[in-house]
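Friendly challenge for the regulars: who can give me the structure tokens for this chain first? No prize, just bragging rights.
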Amino acid sequence: MTAPDDLGGPIGQAPPVVRATEEIDASAERWSRPAREGDRIVLLLHGLGSNEDDLIGLAPYLPTEYVYVSLRGIFSYVQGYAWLDFPPDAADRGKISASAAALERWIARQEGTVVGAIGFSQGAMLALELLRRDPGSLRWAVQLSGAPFPDERPEDAALAERRVPVLWGRGALDPLFDEERIAAVQEWMAAHTEMVAVVSPFLGHGVDEAILGAVAEFVRGQLDAGTDLA
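First reply, four minutes later:
Bragging rights claimed.
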């Protein structure tokens, strides 16, 4: 099998992505601290085959005015978890819609207010999906090594009008992004969001100090600008 590509692309025989839970697993939540009423919450959404212990490691480097929570995908994949099909099928929104709906239900149950999301790869696609379903669902988002689900939604026009701030960070050596895909994602992001693009020159499919620094700067900028209060 070739290198895993959780955003789509040529692969060999892929292991199945199967339903693990109907809802976000409360026992698998990883919080930077317990949330209270009035807190501003930021979602951390992992990539294919990972889990809730992954992105919570970013929290100590990000503004402490937010509460961060890393969640587990509702589908299982090999020894980890996923948010959608592998590879994604543009004609079948079943899994990404189920994940987005489960997240929306989870968000509605929180005492604090979810204001942003930081996603990696599949998690980045899911963060964008929340915005595409409801452009007012998040005040800002960070998508790392990600892309929008490869189709069109009726709500995309409303998202383009709202111009939500979104950081798109990736590695210049990411094998999942050739020139054609980079151009397509950049075009979509520029048309539908207030995009900030950051590229780390020696990074593959991952997160390094340069990308982490850009994320921290972006998140701090949203806090300072009061974007999360809009």
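Residues 131 and 137 are 6 Å apart (CA to CA). Strands lie at 17-19, 30-31, 40-45, 67-71, 75-77, 80-82, 113-120, 140-144, 165-171, 194-200. Your move, everyone else.
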